[in-house]
Amino acid sequence: MREGLKQLLSTVDELTVSGEAADAEAVHRLLNENSADLLILDLGMPGVSGFQFIAQLRTAWPELRVLVLTANVEPRSVRAAFSAGANGYLTKGGDPSELIAAIAAIRTGSAYVAEEVRFAVNQHDGPNETPEPTAAIISPVTLTRRERQILGMIPHGVTNRDIASRLGISPLTARKHRENLMRKLDLHSGAELTAYAVRLGLPAG
Fold first, then answer.
1. What's 2-121's CATH class?
2. In terms of CATH architecture, what is 133-199?
3. Which residues, in sequence order, are bridge partners of residue 42?
4. pTM
5. Does residue 124 surpass a pLDDT of 90?
6. N or C: the chain end with fewer CB closer than 10 Å?
């Protein structure tokens, strides 16, 4: 598997393979020794504690981008991977050419979801809603236009009153949108919501 990946990666411009690992311990060692900015992570590797491992990596190396490679095609797992901080999700049963597409997307700051599981994170808007490109790219869970707007404000420490003022809605409506957002993302506090938004790459300030 790793040899095949290296052959594919050798066709990508301005990309150098700085190392390979057979288990979680080796991943940590290589990241400490090398200035890698992208990790292709097989969730089935020995020592990898599922999605928690992704969150641990992103905490230790905030600039690291993580592209998951797995046989798991469960929709809940796809969403959990992104919630943990993954930047892309590829399936082992997918087309190998998707690897190159995923790397290209991640390089531009976008997320990538394998075609096989893209239905799990579909981003369809309602017929009268205009999509917002930035939020649509980063959000791995289906959100309304208004929820995407609010998600983009979260890292800035806004209150419901701030949201209401910026969007021209009532504070009560702003609170409701925020609650719906947390429910959809399975988050239980303002701190969790902020951490989620930051993990997805939304700028704080």
1. alpha beta
2. Orthogonal Bundle (1.10)
3. 69
4. 0.58
5. no
6. C
